[in-house]
# Entry
Amino acid sequence: MGFLIPSTSSSEEGNIDTPVVWRGLMVQKAVQQLLFDVDWSLNGSPLDVLVIDMPPGTGDVPLTLGQLVVVDGCVIVSTPQDVALSDVRKGVAMLKKVSVPITGLVLNQSYYLCSDCETPKPQYLFGKPDSFKAVAERLQTPILGELPLVQGVSASADGGYPYVLAGKAQSPGESKWKETMGGVAEQVASAIGLR
# Structure
């Protein structure tokens, strides 16, 4: 989005504090342009998969995507808190209304593994995943994985690169995160017919 909004300052930081204040029609048009006016090929080869990461909710972007293109699968990511699970329930209901297939759910920040402990055991800092599992069962949606809380995820996001490309895991939590994310990727690839 940073390329689409004007800079409001002459400083080196540019437009990092400029809000995107667009009404639904502008958002829909931007999504249309992103999908249909961008050359997604790589050296003449067609795109295999386009992954779109969206914030939670039932706004214009997921609705527009569901109506404009054939979506092969959707992965819903949540944290264990009840307020986040409320968004999951609403998001799944909306996606079902527009016939978007839901591949599964991922629980982020599910637990913490101590890196200095002899035998690391999951510590549920934000609560046990019982409510998440109950929501998944009620929605009849598979759980693809439960990711531990790992500091490197935040650092890689701030650095602008995916954590899976961050290099070798240095702690039990990092190893478990990468192993779980690999399993999620395999399940998604299989569900959408890439494996």
